[in-house]
Specification:
Blueprint lengths: L6 H5 L1 E7 L9 H13 L7 E5 L4 E6 L2 H6 L6
Parallel strand pairs: 1-3
Antiparallel strand pairs: 2-3
Length: 77
C-alpha cells in the first residue's frame, strides 16, 4: 500500500522514480518527461506515492494512474 505524503521524508528525497502503466508504453519520451515533471512538482496530490529508503535518503516513487492524468489535464494519445 502506498504511503501518504510525508514532509519529513520529502525533505530527504534524493531520487525521483516514476512507474508507468502498460497503457502508456506508446507515449514518447518527451511526453513522459513532461508528465513526470508535473507529478513530481506536486507529489502530495499523487494518487499512488511511495517512499523507498536508501542509504542517503529516500526515493520518491510515483505510480502514474488515470486519476493523475485527469488531474493534470493530460491528453492521452
Amino acid at each position: 500500500m502506498p504511503n501518504a505524503f510525508d514532509p519529513y521524508r520529502e525533505a530527504l528525497v534524493v531520487e525521483q522514480v516514476t512507474a508507468w502503466p502498460d497503457a502508456c508504453e506508446d507515449w514518447s519520451a518527451a511526453d513522459k518527461s513532461r508528465v513526470e515533471a508535473m507529478l513530481h512538482a506536486d507529489p502530495k496530490d499523487a494518487a499512488e506515492l511511495d517512499y523507498v529508503r536508501q542509504h542517503t535518503g529516500f526515493a520518491r516513487v510515483i505510480t502514474v494512474t488515470p486519476a493523475d492524468l485527469d488531474r493534470i489535464s493530460v491528453a492521452r494519445p
